[in-house]
Write a structure and sequence with these properties.
By secondary structure, the protein is of the alpha/beta class. Helix content is about 25%, strand content about 20%. It has helices at about 10-20, 35-45, 85-90, 90-95, and strands spanning about 25-30, 60-65, 70-75, 100-105, 120.
């Protein structure tokens, strides 16, 4: 996926949700600065999240609430993960198996833990 200029990011988020809105686990691949967090913020805006959306680099996971249906949305950033045990320590399986939307940055660091039906999106910067 190539992200459009920032002024069109919300339209891209709406289009994405209309096509892939049923996915429960979405893994966002891309280099540092490619726009993963920016796109996730736009998706959360379209899902009417009123919480502050930012990268959970230090917390590893942030929880937001959808203003549409009140459902939790989980936003992971595994950039700092050094050992797979750290992922289990935060209760990753409970989040993933909750049936709620889970958006993951740096999924390549936990590839073996991603569910088979995970939607994998590569974001590139040009």
């Amino acid at each position: 996926m190539i992200l459009p200029p920032l002024e069109n990011i919300h339209q891209a988020a709406r289009d994405f949700l209309s096509q892939y809105g049923r996915a429960k686990v979405i893994a966002f691949y891309g280099k540092m600065g490619a726009g993963k967090t920016t796109f996730i913020k736009a998706l959360c805006d379209e899902l009417q999240v009123t919480d502050v959306v930012n990268s959970p680099t230090f917390a590893i996971v942030n929880e937001y609430t959808s203003g549409i249906n009140g459902a939790p949305i989980f936003h992971f950033d595994f950039y700092r993960i050094k050992r797979i045990e750290e992922v289990y320590d935060i209760g990753y399986e409970e989040y993933i198996e909750s049936g709620n939307l889970c958006m993951i940055e740096w999924p390549e660091l936990i590839e073996e833990l991603l569910p088979q039906d995970c939607l994998r999106i590569k974001i590139s910067h040009q």
